[in-house]
Amino acid sequence: MEFCPTCGNMLLYESADTGRPARFFCPTCPYVCYMESKVKIKKKQRLVKKDLEPVITDDDMKNASHTDASKSTEFWKNIGDNWSVIYFIEN
Question: Which residue ranges does the record assign to the DNA-directed RNA polymerase II subunit RPB9-like zinc ribbon domain (predicted)?
Answer without folding.
Answer: 2-56
